[in-house]
Amino acid sequence: MSPDVSSIFRPGLLDGQVALVTGGGTGIGLGISTLLADLGAHVVIASRKPEHLAGAEAGIRARGGAVSTVALDVRQPEAVKAAVDGIAQRLGRLDVLVNNAAGNFYAPSATLSANAWKSVVEIDLYGTFHCSQAVYPVMAAQGGGRIISTSMTLHYRGWPLMAHATAAKAGVDALTRTLAVEWAPQRIRVNAIAPGPIPTEGVRKAFTPPADSGVPDVFAAAEAKMAEYARKGIPLGRWGTPEDIANMVAFLASPAGDWITGAIFVIDGGEWLAKGGG
Ligand code: COA
């Protein structure tokens, strides 16, 4: 436990717990991995990219956290099952699954290739299902667990050039509600978080629209423009941070969330409500 943790949660809150965070080596996922480890969980970071694993593991270990890694593509159900079974064997349990891995980019629906559609839907929706299904027997056998999946707010209205991601995340919402009811008897709580704009590198890349698309490119704007967007477009007046999202994940992972299942928490400073139809 690092002394400089600015967390509202009590030290040791997740002692003895094991958490798997997909896409947990960068951006929002790294913020989640870091906070869960700070609170005492052994965090297993899964990523397709080995270069994302090594840095994240070293960083968390340097803070005094318990961490290990697994190279994994959430689109491959057999590999997901093998990874989850490996974690259960090695660490003896698996309490928290954070389905954070996602893929995204702006592209016109009229010309989106079948493979591009498939890539995003497979990572965001199929990946969430594969990982949730893989942890089910482990969590059911140990008497419960928590699954926290990552949704978004863009599908609450139409969002041009994001057909693949909005369709996938609408599916994540539906899956969250269904699994919450189906797996409640096993005391597996299933919830989702819907982060608003958080300008991590991955998000900047994913949400930079093609130059000729006519879609405003808020992330490429100068710093002054970024500040102006936050002031005008986000009621709470600032961009989000990975820590904003991690705090909700920690809450849901903790006993404070014991009577919460099937909920989808928007964490966006009020952005989507304020945008209305525009
Ligand atoms: N516009 C249109 N099509 C695109 C694209 C873009 N910006 N980026 C990728 N594609 C297409 C590719 O052309 C390919 O289709 P094709 O075979 O018909 O040519 C298909 O998507 C798969 O691309 P590939 O790079 O082989 O897939 P991948 O599995 O390595 O990567 C992605 C998955 C495409 C989702 C990639 O963007 C990714 O890895 N993202 C992870 C990071 C991220 O997006 N984070 C989101 C934070 S919100």
Helix and strand pattern:
EHEHEHEHEHEHHHEH
Nearest-integer average pLDDT:
93
Count of helical regions: 9
Biggest sheet, in brief? 7 strands, parallel
Which percent band covers the strand fraction?
A: 5-15%
Largest sheet, order of strands side by side? 3-2-1-4-5-6-7
List keywords for this structure.
single chain; 278 residues; alpha/beta; Rossmann fold; seven-stranded parallel β-sheet; 7 strands; 14% strand; binds coenzyme A
Notes on the structure:
The chain is built from nine helices and seven strands. The chain is α/β, with parallel strands linked by helices and 278 residues long. The protein has a seven-stranded parallel beta sheet with strand order 3-2-1-4-5-6-7, with helices on both faces. The protein is globular and about 50 Å long. It binds coenzyme A.
